[in-house]
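# step 3/5: fold
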Amino acid sequence: RLPAGSRLLVDPARVTLGLAEAAPQGVERHEQINPSTLLKACKTAEEVAQVRLAMEEDGAALCVFFARFEAALARGERLTELTVDDWLSEARAARPNFVSLSFATIAGFNAGGALPHYRATEEAHAELQGDGLLLIDSGGQYLGGTTDITRVVPIGTPSAAQKRDFTLVLKGMLALSRARFPAGVAAPMLDALAREPIWAAGIDYGHGTGHGVGYFLNVHEGPQSISFYATVTPHHVLREGMITSNEPGIYRPGQWGVRLENLLLCTRAETTEFGDFLAFETLTLCPLDTRCLDLALLRSDELDWLDGYHAEVRRRVLPLVEGAARDWLLARTEPVARTAR
């Protein structure tokens, strides 16, 4: 029923061919991205301020969970992958402005962690016993923002090979976290930064390194995608205010998996004679488990970044926790650079 001379915007990624062709002749069709997509993707300063507060609350919930979890491990209690899901959900639900989980928690021990989209069920799950690595990918929806975080922690004593994989993944995460790049660069082009330390060891992983994250909306939300699997379009350009995940990994089928994930905010870094440059602010606030590190594989600047990150986590989350959670946070944010040197 559109009259001749009307102008119709069609987002090819969201509209079927049949619907687009239903427009009568004489309607001027323009193919471009739905305007709401970029309005959601580029957070305002007010939204970013609320996201930072949500990250602090989420970090506090993780401290409460890990303190309880590690104490139970030390007492020899029977724990399973399902226990992780239950206790972590309970810790998040106790935080101010929590609404729901942002997706179903992934808790995979050893072989389970080698499956990127593993889900423990009542019928099929593992007990946390013996030695190995536990991968936990989880997130929450708060009124002030959406969180998505992956951490890997040791159960018993991790092997030298497991520590090597963990450290290589951390190096990849750090490389992307510290990136500076010209405005206008498409997000998929940054994927290689996170993979380079992993590729150098003759290893790769079969998923993208980063996805966009909404503001109290979808935990996976475009248009940005840090993945060399993505078909690059003009809409993949990273813009100031976009939030993306940073989650390289290594997966050894039937053995163990390592994935580390923080959320990053795209920020303006500087303007030089070569134009505007962007950088990332790490939003997620939770310690990375240094018990899984092979310190010999980390450069001094990488160790300094890790200590600086842990100092920031301690500064912002410590006022929100007490008791065992506070003690856990203090222990897990101890500097490692001096020890390594």
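# step 4/5: annotate
The CA atoms of residues 10 and 20 lie 7 Å apart.
# step 5/5: archive (pending)
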